[in-house]
Amino acid sequence: MDNYEAHDLTAVSFSAVVPAPPERRVEERQTSLLRIGKLVTTDDQRLCMIRNISSAGALLKLYQPIDIGAQVEVEVTPDCPVAATVIWTQDDLAGVAFAEAIDVVEALKGASRMGPYRRIARTPRLNIRRPAKLCTDDLECAVTLCDLSLNGAKFETEESLTSDLEVALFVEGLAPLTGRVRWCRENHAGMEFDIPVQMDVLVAWMGGA
Predict the structure, then answer these.
(1) Is a pLDDT exceeding 80 seen at residue 46?
(2) Distance CA 19, CA 194 (A)
(3) Which of 80, 82, 89, 173 suits 41 as a labelling partner, its CA being 20 to 30 A distant?
(4) E strands, the chain, where?
(5) Of 109, 143, 162, which closes a domain?
(6) pLDDT tens sequence across 69-122
(7) What is Dmax (Cα atoms) for the chain?
(8) Is residue 117 part of a domain?
(9) Degrees (nearest 5) of the Cα angle 99, 101, 102?
């Protein structure tokens, strides 16, 4: 469900040191294929790119400014939130120190791997409740969007849906999101998008939501 290649260039360090700001010549050789994380502040939640991670902290690429000293929670994966403090910023980069040392390998794997061949954890999801419309070949109904990631969404519905059903989700401010239902449980369902939402699109949508 996730794009593995979009995560495999995050640098991992086994030292107990918070990653420092990169040297410019090294920065120019970096690509944008990095692990996606979520940063939760006292006021909001936002997506970020995890450029480097160690047991003591991480180097993040941010899309909104943040103050040095801010208390945050970094979600390397949805099931691995880590309390941290912002200790430096440089342009659109920030270094965070974890409140407690983490097991980097386990954090990157995620605690809820599904099956022995699952290579990475799901991309972080933004918890947000918004009205939306769901359409199938035979149905059009109002639903409530519960969370959203680059690759899929969870929504609340009173309709009976089935796994693998082709659907289109309409959310104000976003282009139609087409895909398939992957699971249904009580009054909730999860869908996987045919085409992932672009990072900058989702960031801009969250900023105006």
Answers:
(1) yes
(2) 36
(3) 173
(4) 11-12, 35-40, 45-53, 57-61, 71-75, 81-90, 93-98, 126-135, 140-148, 152-156, 166-170, 177-185, 188-193
(5) 109
(6) 999 999 887 767 899 999 999 999 999 999 998 888 777 776 554 433 343 446
(7) 56
(8) no
(9) 115
Q: What is the CATH number of the domain that holds 195?
A: 2.40.10.220
Identify the domain containing residue 35 by its residue range: 4-109
Question: Is the sign of the CA dihedral 185, 190, 191, 192 positive or negative?
Answer: negative
Decide if 121 is inside a domain: no
Distance CA 66, CA 45 (A): 12
- Is the CB of residue 55 less than 8 Å from the CB of residue 14? yes
Query: What residues contact residue 81 under an 8 Å CB cut-off, 6+ apart?
Result: 40, 73, 74, 75
d(CA 100, CA 84): 8
Tokens 């970020």 -> residue: 48
Per DSSP, the residues of 130-171 read EEEEEE-SS-EEEEEEEEE-SSEEEEE-SS---TT-EEEEE-
SS3 180: strand
171 CB neighbour count, 10 Å cutoff: 20
pTM over 0.70: no
Rg (CA), the chain: 18
Q: Which of 106, 147, 122 is nearest to 4 (CA)?
A: 122
Total domains in the fold of the chain: 2
